[in-house]
Amino acid sequence: MSTLARLTAQKKQLLARLGADPAPNERAEIQALLAKIETALKLLDPQGASLPDRG
């Protein structure tokens, strides 16, 4: 699995966890991880051409 695919999969999992209404401390942890993943995705694909879900 490529790095891009792995990061995208992790992002989807974290977004699903956010949708499950986590506790405030878990929500903060998930949001921090999502921010790191977004940064990595932008560095890997600055144009966003292969990232259909940029939310």
Task: Give a short summary of the structure.
The chain is built from two helices and no strands.
Write the layout of secondary structure elements.
Blueprint: H1 3-19, H2 24-44
Helix pairs in contact: 1-2
CA(first)-CA(last) distance: 22 Å
- What is the share of helical residues? 55-70%
β-strand amount:
under 5%
Determine the number of helices (DSSP H or I, runs of at least 4 residues). 2
**Low-pLDDT windows of residues:** none
What is the succession of H and E elements?
HH
Beta strands, count = 0
* Category from helices, strands and their pairing: mainly alpha
Q: Any idea what the shape is?
A: elongated
Give an account of the 3D structure.
- Helix 1 runs antiparallel to helix 2 (24-44).
- This protein is mostly helical and 55 residues long.
- It has 2 helices and no strands.
- It has helices at 3-19, 24-44.
